[in-house]
Amino acid sequence: MPIYIWLTGVLLFVGLVFFAFAQAASARNGAQSAADAAALAAAQDARDELMDGLGLAIGNGDDWLDWLAGDDFTGAGARGAADALAAENDSVVVGFGPAEVNGYPGFRAEIETTYTVGDSIIPGTESKHAKADATAIVEPRCDIDPSADPEKAVEFICGDGESFEIDPDDFEPDDLPDASVLFSVHLAD
Predict the structure, then answer these.
(1) Is there a contact between 116 and 127 (Cβ–Cβ < 8 Å)?
(2) Half-sphere exposure (CA, 13 Å, Cβ side) for 89?
(3) How far are the Cα atoms of 66, 87, 110, 138 from residue 93, in angstroms, in the given order?
(4) Using the 8-state DSSP alphabet, how is residue 174 labeled?
(5) I want to staple 173 with a disulfide (CB 3.0 to 4.6 A). Which of 19, 55, 67, 159 is the partner?
(6) How far is 26 from 130, CA to CA, in rounded Å?
(7) Which of the pair, 77 or 71, is modelled with greater confidence?
């Protein structure tokens, strides 16, 4: 009987320890989801800025090929987008900035959860917040002939094999395809 009680106590203790690790893993997964969402929101905001800038540059007769290559955005609203998505995931952005992965521009977001791991058998977990980071990039999906003249009609082929032509002399903003056709937003590996 004493061995049975002892073994039951040991098993109960081990179960509580596993439960504490599961709580920590759950908090970490929630933090990673929030970081991914914040970084993606920032990159999507930059993609929207690229589309707006592209439309304005073509309409004004500026050199719009840099916009199509994903080079001219500032990312002015990206931090706000990251903050908003982190807040929706019960987290706050504690670090944010531009990033470049394989030559593609993007943003890196570091977050901390507003909730803690919770009470457990392991002391101190009730005050520990999960932290995570993620980087998302904006990748142009269309190829442009390097010798293309932005003052003339330009044809370009996008990643899915679809081709488009933009003629600055006969341009309407509605002529632009959807942003997702021109630019891919995804998490960096």
Answers:
(1) yes
(2) 29
(3) 30, 8, 6, 20
(4) G
(5) 55
(6) 9
(7) 77
